[in-house]
């Protein structure tokens, strides 16, 4: 290929990349605009607030039952337009909020962290029994960790929101995991952004091994706690 042809091709590719970048930004802006309609954020925050109140009560209930600390953290987030867009692209779906509302389960997400492995399951059981919570899907990445080693219990639920004269159902993803699993996933999340960088593959392997160590440690700590309880 002649030098001139090569330069023209590079310039054409650059133009295409810029056009693609602009299209992407426009679609993210459209998602953001739609999220600003119909009190979307307020209703999502409302759902997070309801689950936070439930988590607080469960924490107190179990703390009284066992005479020890149960939960260590609660956080909630509304998925950002950028993250919605990226997930829709990953799933090869149309990149608009309407599709996201139909197809993504984690537009609203809450995370509960606790000290011990059995607490994860007890918290989940209590939540599942609540009359106003409808379980849509349960994913036990503790019993069956993801390929990369990710561990967490995910409950996809629908909860009712009463808002003025209106009633609607809001889907929320509840992630419940131990502190050790949470600590692990923070590092894995950072690694996700460095996937194709040199050294990332080696780090991913090391992290996968640590996931097994986390699982073993969680198990040992729970057994030790039981022994200490009997002393
Ligand atoms: P972000 O940025 O946290 O929002 P589904 O259609 O429900 O079957 P989905 O939603 O991909 O498919 O389900 P999954 O695998 O349960 O993932 C939901 C969320 O769990 C993710 O949201 C992450 O928050 C978390 N998660 C899942 N897998 C991993 C993992 O390997 N590492 C870490 N660190 N977190 C994970 P997002 O949208 O991917 O990310």
Please sum up the structure shown.
This protein has 231 residues and is an alpha+beta fold. It has helices at 3-35, 40-66, 81-90, 97-103, 117-129, 179-192, 200-230, and strands spanning 71-78, 108-114, 134-140, 153-163, 166-178.
How much helix, percentage-wise, in residues? 55-70%
Average pLDDT rating: 93
Q: What fraction of residues sit in β-strands? A: 15-25%
Give the low-confidence spans.
none
Structural class: alpha+beta
Written as H for each helix and E for each strand, in order along the chain, the element string is: HHEHHEHEEEHH
The tally of beta strands, per DSSP, is 5
Radius of gyration: 22 Å
> What's the number of helices?
7
- Which small compounds were modeled alongside the protein? ligand 0O2
Strand count, sense and barrel status of the largest sheet are: 5 strands, mixed
How far apart the termini lie comes to 81 Å
Physical arrangement of strands within the biggest beta sheet: 1-2-5-4-3
Q: Which term fits the overall shape?
A: flat
Search tags:
single chain, 231 residues, alpha+beta, five-stranded mixed sheet, 7 helices, 5 strands, binds ligand 0O2
């Amino acid at each position: 290929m002649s030098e001139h042809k090569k330069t023209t091709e590079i310039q054409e590719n650059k133009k295409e990349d810029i056009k693609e970048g602009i299209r992407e930004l426009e679609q993210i802006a459209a998602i953001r605009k739609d999220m600003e309609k119909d009190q979307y954020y307020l209703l999502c925050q409302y759902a997070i607030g309801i689950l936070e109140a439930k988590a607080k009560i469960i924490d107190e209930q179990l703390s009284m039952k066992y005479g020890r600390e149960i939960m260590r953290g609660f956080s909630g987030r509304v998925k950002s337009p950028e993250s919605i867009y990226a997930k829709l692209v990953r799933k090869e779906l149309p990149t608009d909020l309407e599709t996201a509302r139909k197809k993504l389960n984690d537009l609203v997400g809450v995370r509960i962290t606790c000290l011990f492995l059995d607490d994860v399951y007890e918290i989940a059981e209590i939540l599942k029994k609540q009359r106003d919570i409808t379980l849509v899907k349960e994913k036990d990445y503790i019993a069956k960790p993801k390929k990369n080693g990710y561990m967490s219990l995910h409950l996809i639920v629908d909860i009712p929101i009463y808002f003025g004269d209106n009633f609607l159902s809001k889907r929320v993803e509840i992630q419940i995991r131990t502190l050790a699993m949470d600590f692990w996933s923070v590092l894995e999340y950072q690694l996700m952004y460095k996937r194709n960088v040199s050294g990332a593959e080696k780090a991913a392997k090391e992290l996968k091994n640590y996931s097994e160590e986390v699982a073993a440690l969680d198990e040992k700590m729970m057994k030790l706690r039981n022994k200490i309880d009997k002393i």
